[in-house]
Design brief:
alpha+beta; 11 helices; 6-stranded antiparallel sheet; 33% strand; 469 residues; 12-stranded mixed sheet
């Protein structure tokens, strides 16, 4: 059996704002362990015999995802770029087409990239059962989470009360009120909907073709006309835009007669809010999760995150999240309402709701550390052997100061080497470039000054990543 992980990394994670805005989703953050959530999602399959993963994501996240997969030893993932977000059904269909390029009979396991699972062994045992069911019987299998309390924030799956390892899928139900959820849990016939699936790629494609031919044909056309951009598969936009925005639950799983449920009790959480992140995190004797240099007095059952020293007094059941861009203070029980705050910020055109101070590029990363009316200061890291494009700016000058590593610089007609504590000034309108010819990361500070400092004031003349127009 060829088992191929399909990792869905399209969610914006606005319920975890401000650490996870639309440009920097929660799955790319180290919230639960030293690894990021997408790294944990891939790594928990390590004991299984699986192929390199297929990841479906947006164009904005492609470089950071490729970098994070490389950090855990994934060298040849298939990273599919969605031109527009159309929910999970079209994304999974595109991934199935890609899986069949490896093996026409491939079995795929579809995993959201932002879940937490405590018991990896139990999870992998359930994956083996589900994969065998999918391969032998052509079933479309979903994992039903055995509920531990009457949750109102999850959808439910109705099956039957049984000790069997594979159960029939009767129906999906929407998020219930508390009394209904309590009845579900007491009946023993309902599971939380995990959003994780296993099926043969062809089985899923046959079902989607039967239930929604437009999604099948539009996604096939988009996939067939996809272009390879560096190491990424860029779906063709016009065809993909024809798709309805619909989840795989609505498009297929609620309609199929091939649905099965594999019960799972492995400490699962979708980490959808700061409250749920507090739930799955290790706590101190006062019930606090302190991801900061924090001094507390009379603080209980709270979550505090900051890169600064935090002093907190007399708080209970609160969330305090301090980042470079924003400060969030919320009642922990109402932390899911953060999305409404994000919507309000968007209405006011506040950039913090849609932009991040950290940017990922094919050559490395940059972080804006100071921004004023006519100046911007960036901390830039260039990976060994990488090079920024040969470019110029009409509206700003730049000053580069090397912090560590070695830089090969072009400044107008001159080319030279800069090392630690050396610098160069690049006047407005001067063609320039910088690259890392060494074996260690190059770090430098870039000070921009001028009347316009946005990223679109770049005229590229040469670029090894194909970004010249």
């Amino acid at each position: 059996m060829t088992l191929i992980p399909v990792i869905l990394s399209g969610g914006s994670g606005t319920r975890l704002w401000p650490l996870s805005r639309a440009t920097f989703p929660k799955q790319l953050l180290s919230l639960i362990s030293e690894n990021t959530m997408i790294q944990n999602t891939v790594s928990r399959l390590a004991s299984l015999s699986v192929s390199e993963p297929i990841v479906v994501c947006s164009d904005n996240h492609r470089f950071i995802i490729a970098e994070q997969l490389s950090q855990i030893g994934i060298k040849n993932p298939s990273i599919i770029l969605e031109p527009v977000a159309k929910n999970t059904a079209p994304a999974i269909v595109a991934a199935c087409f890609q899986a069949q390029k490896t093996d026409k009979d491939a079995v795929v396991i579809v995993l959201p990239s932002d879940h937490d699972i405590k018991d990896t062994k139990v999870f992998c045992d359930a994956v083996k059962i589900a994969a065998e069911e999918a391969e032998k019987n052509g079933s479309l299998v979903t994992f039903g989470i055995t509920p531990t309390y009457p949750a109102t924030g999850y959808g439910y799956i109705n099956s039957e009360k049984s000790s069997e390892s594979v159960l029939p899928l009767k129906k999906f139900v929407e998020k219930p009120d508390f009394d209904t959820a309590k009845k579900y849990v007491e009946s023993g016939e309902y599971f939380w909907n995990s959003g994780m699936f296993i099926f043969k790629a062809q089985s899923l494609l046959d079902e989607i073709k039967s239930f929604d031919k437009t999604i099948y044909e539009s996604t096939l056309e988009s996939f067939s006309n996809a272009t390879v951009d560096l190491d990424f598969i860029r779906l063709e936009k016009n065809s993909f835009e024809k798709n309805t925005s619909i989840s795989i639950d609505y498009a297929v799983m609620e309609k199929t007669k091939k649905g099965k449920v594999v019960p799972l009790s492995a400490g699962w959480s979708d980490v959808g809010s700061w409250g749920s992140l507090w739930d799955v995190s290790e706590k101190d004797s006062d019930g606090n999760v302190l991801k900061a240099d924090a001094v507390t007095m009379g603080v209980k059952d709270s979550f505090i995150y900051s890169k600064k020293t935090v002093a907190a007094i007399g708080l209970e059941n609160v969330v305090v999240v301090d980042t470079k861009d924003a400060l969030l203070v919320a009642d922990k029980s109402k932390s899911e309402s953060v999305k409404e705050i994000v919507d309000e910020l968007k209405k006011k055109n506040n950039k913090v709701a849609s932009e991040s101070s950290v940017g990922y590029r094919p050559w490395g990363t940059y972080e804006t550390i100071e921004l004023g009316k006519r100046y911007r200061v960036k901390h830039i890291i260039v990976r060994p052997g990488q090079k920024l494009s040969v470019q110029m700016h009409y509206h700003r000058a730049e000053h580069w100061i090397v912090v560590s590593g070695t830089a090969k610089v072009r400044n107008g007609d001159n080319e030279f080497i800069l090392t630690e504590n050396q610098s160069t000034f690049i006047p407005l309108g001067t063609i320039h470039a910088i690259e890392n010819p060494g074996k260690l990361p190059l770090e430098f500070i870039e000070v921009q000054s001028g009347s316009y400092l946005e990223e679109d004031d770049i005229v590229r003349f040469e670029d090894i990543y194909g970004r010249c127009k």
